[in-house]
Amino acid sequence: MDPDASRPAADRPELSPDEFSATVAAVTNAFGDPTRREIYLDARTRDGVTAAEVAERFDLHSNVARHHLEKLAGGGYLVVDLARAESAGRPSKRYRPSSEDAVLTMVPRRDDLLMGLLARALDRLGPEAAGKLADEVGFEHGQALAEAMGETDGHRSARAAIGAVADALTAHGFAAHVEDKGRRLAIISECCPFGEAAQLYPHVVCAVDRGLIRGMLAGLHGQTDPHIEASRLHGDDHCVARL
Question: Range of 50's domain?
Answer without folding.
Answer: 3-102
